[in-house]
Amino acid sequence: MLRGWLAVIRRAESVEALGRGYAKLGRTLTFLQGIQILEFNLTAQRIYAELKSIKPRIGTQDLRIAAIALATDVILVTRDRKDFGQVPQLRLEDWTRRQ
C-alpha cells in the first residue's frame, strides 16, 4: 500500500495530484497505526524454508505471508485461494464470498 502511494506521489504531474497522493499516503499511515503487524520471527523463517522446499507455485511474498500465518496460528483472510490453497495446513477465509 505504501509503495503504491509513493509511486503515485512520484508520478504526480500537478501540484493537485501531488497533494492528493500525500493525503492518501497520510490516510493509509493513520489506518496502519491501528493494525497489529505480525513478525517474520524465527518460527516463521523455519516454516518459510520448509514451504520453499516443497516448491509451491506461489509468489515469494505470499509464501512469507503464509509462513507468518502458520507460525502465529491465525486464519489468513484472502480471496486468493488458488495460490494460498497450495500451502498445507494454512487456514483460509474469504470475506468477499457469501456463506
The 3D shape can be described as elongated
Order of strands, main sheet, comes to: 1-2
CATH superfamily of the largest domain: 5'-nuclease
CATH architecture heading of the largest domain: 3-Layer(aba) Sandwich
CATH topology of the largest domain: Rossmann fold
Fraction of residues in H or I helices: 55-70%
Query: Which percent band covers the strand fraction?
Result: under 5%
CATH class of the largest domain: Alpha Beta
Average pLDDT level: 94
Order of helices and strands: HHHHEHE
Number of discrete helical segments: 5
Low-confidence segments, ≥5 residues, pLDDT <50?
Answer: none
Radius of gyration: 17 Å
Question: If you had to describe this structure to a student in words, what would you say it looks like?
Answer:
With 99 residues, the protein is mainly alpha-helical. The chain folds into two domains: 32 residues; 52 residues, 5'-nuclease (Rossmann fold). It has a two-stranded parallel sheet. Strand 1, helix 5 and strand 2 form a beta-alpha-beta unit. The longest helix has 19 residues. The radius of gyration is 17 Å and the shape is elongated. 12% of the residues are buried.
